Every structure is written in C-alpha cells, then in structure tokens.
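Give me structure tokens for this 232-residue protein.
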Amino acid sequence: MNTITFGELEFELRLSKKRKTIGITVERDGNLILVVPPDASEDAIAKTVEKRRLWIYRHLIRKENLNQNQPTKEYVSGEGFYYLGRSYRLKIINYEINHNPLNLYQGKFYLLNTALPSAREHFIAWYRTHLLTYLNNKISFFNHRIGVEPKSIKVRELGARWGSCTDNKNLCFHWRVAMLPPEIIKYLLVHEMIHLLEPSHNQLFWQKLEQVIPDYLEKKQWLAYNGVRFNL
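Here you go.
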C-alpha cells in the first residue's frame, strides 16, 4: 500500500487512470484516501489537501465521535442484531434449527450455544449468504432501468467501503450492507451499477444516479451519519 503524508495527515495513495481530478475520501474508520490521476504532481496533491484540510478535520472529528459512541456487540440472549434495517433479538439455544448453528426464525436470531466461540463468524457467514440472495433478486429490475448488467455480484469484507465496482464489471458489497434498511441498500446497489457506466464521481455520474434515486443525497447523508451503527 502506497502512503503519502502532509503534515500530520497520512493518506493511502491510489492511482486511477479514470480520474481527471484529485479526490479525497474519509473512510468510516477514519482512514484517509487520496485517489489521483497518474500524472498528478505532488505539488498539486499538496495544494488539494491544504484546500480541503478543514473539511478533512471536520469529518475525522465526526467519525471519531460516532465510533466512540457505539457499544460493543455481545453474543448473549437479548442482544439486538440488524437485518434489512430491523433489529432482531438473539436467543442462545442448545438445539439446532434447520441443521444450522445460526437462524433467523419467527422474529428472532437463534444461535447454538456450542457455536458461541465463533459467533461473529457465523453472523458474517449468514449475512453474506442472505445479502447475496437479496441483491440477486433485486438486480434484474435495475439492469433494465439503468441499461447495464454487472458480470457478477459478490459479498465480502471490504474494510471501510460499503461497495465497489471493479474494472472487469464485478460489483462487490460489504457483508454489513445486509444490516441496512432496504432503501439504503437500493441506493448502494444503484450507485455501484452506475459506476459500470461512469467509473468516476463526475457530474454525469450524479445526474444518472439522480434519475434513478431522486433523493440520493438524503440516502447518502443518512448513511454517513448512521452507517457506523450497523456493525458487529
């Protein structure tokens, strides 16, 4: 991983042939990302960082406060776990349901007591499987609406990103997306699908997104302020 430092700020540096301008992202975990065209000079990058320094600090402070206020999940009966925006209580049991250690059944998550040492891994696996099914069921509608079809959809660990669109037209989504409300999942799905047409966040990208999600700005802001809650 390439990094570059300006004063006390350290950035992960990503080169992108698709970008014509320098972009700065503050990830959910506070990591700073610089996405730059290959021909961008260090002086031009430094000027961009200096110009947006106040913006960067504001976002770092807000994300730090949000992260500090989030309680750690405990895998005990009564703890709530999100799926599609709704919180379901967990119940620890000593018998299997449907031959699986973890199930969502009749409005509760049921976890086999012998699976407690690897409870988080069981939840991640469950979210991955169910999110992939959910997204595959939704994708055909937007294929026609947007006029483009991804080569595949994958659910995996993406660090601080909710989703990504690869150069070979695969869409990837973080397993945490399974916890979000359906309207926010729709926004993320459409966002990444439009990247199949417009790789960078240019004006045309946002125009295309607005055509499908007219209130995308509200969805984007909601996710920025509330997304940290949806975690294990």
